[in-house]
Sequence to fold (483 residues):
Amino acid sequence: MADHFPLLVPGARGAGTMEVTAPFDNAVIATVEQADQSGVDRALTTAYRLYRDRDTWLSPATRIAILDRAIEIMRDRRDELAIEAAREGGKPLIDSEVEADRAIDSVRICVEELRTQRGTEIPMNVNAASAGRLAFSQLEPRGVVVAFSAFNHPLNLIAHQVGPAVATGCPVIVKPAEATPLSCWRFVEILHEAGLPPEWCQALMTTDLDVAGQLVSDSRVGFFSFIGSATVGWMLRSNLAPGARCALEHGGAAPVIVAGDADLDDALPLLAKGGFYHAGQVCVSVQRVFAHRDVAHNVAEKLAELAYGMTVGDPTLSVTEVGPLIREGEVTRVGEWVEEAIDGGAEHLSGARELSSTTYAPTVLFNPPTSAKVSTLEIFGPVIAVYPYDRFDEAIGLANSLPYAFQAAVFTRDLDTAFRASRYLDASAVMVNDHTAFRVDWMPFAGVRESGLGTGGIPYTMRDMQLEKMTIVRSAELGYPGG
Fold:
């Protein structure tokens, strides 16, 4: 019998259930209780009441103790968390185990940041107007945090949104992706087990867009965190109440430039991993590879060889390297985009076919049209496109030609080439001799232009969820009698 996950909103009643299915075989693995408008209002009322009553705020020491206990529980259940994430999200177990480890470390970073963050002293006594004064700032929680998350990292993304909220003392309401709510529920339940009062972190699920919209647009929301599609994210931002802050993390069409002098033996396995990791369903997956014409076809052929050698299948098996796409419809869509590119003149060197109704073969295309969907939109599937270029600045121009910008990469043995790429590529981060999907959880992680708003990464999210309040003290003892 499938597990049942109740609504995690104290005092609220559920409004029906939804089924959660495994993307590999469509088996029902759980049911989750849904919230209606009254459930959303109950969650917001509870969270806002906590925020407005400063006597109920949890001290930093209490928050640290809770997060420390959560870390220990997560370590004990690491394998269970990884298997559940693999099963509900389709990311292969070998990568879901890494995700579980990262989620544990993400909570640890919250604790470390909480121990070291601080306000500032603002200079006074520097002119007649500021004489006899002392000014300093302290950090306070910004307000109620509402977080909408994505399916592709069902545990660690929740840790990135909920962990900082708990650490900074913000009451938080989280709505996970419809496809992958179970890892979210497990994480929130672990926080409660670790001693966090349930009212401080509530989780709800709804498939009703009006109900979800109500949760975002309410005037009691202080900070909105969104990870998902740009179309949805920018629309929801436009519905925020006046005064609400937000962070949006969308996708891109990550560009890589391979210079003629690149070490291909080093570069190609990294590019294959960065492109086919989680079947390409990562916002910074390697998608567009611009390789110097002298090496371009060789790059594509070698990537195709690596693609052919990858094991595609059940994500819960340790041998699987590429799992399913999140929904069968995505397999169809990716296939249609690949066929469009091939019909337009692209050479397909591997893949370009469905392996089943839920899996698509890792695909390498050589020189698809620049107007094709695989060249202009985020594929979010296991497809890498390789394009030849003649001049380095030509590659820069092609890489920068889309309205999305997130992380980019260059492979070269020449320092000047690396620095030119770093200077001229439109990106929030440029990887030198590494793939575009590299990330550690304490670094800044940000989409720019249409790819997002604000900066992710645990320390940066924590700062966004706080406001800096200044206190100014006037006293004759603070002045300098001698002038």
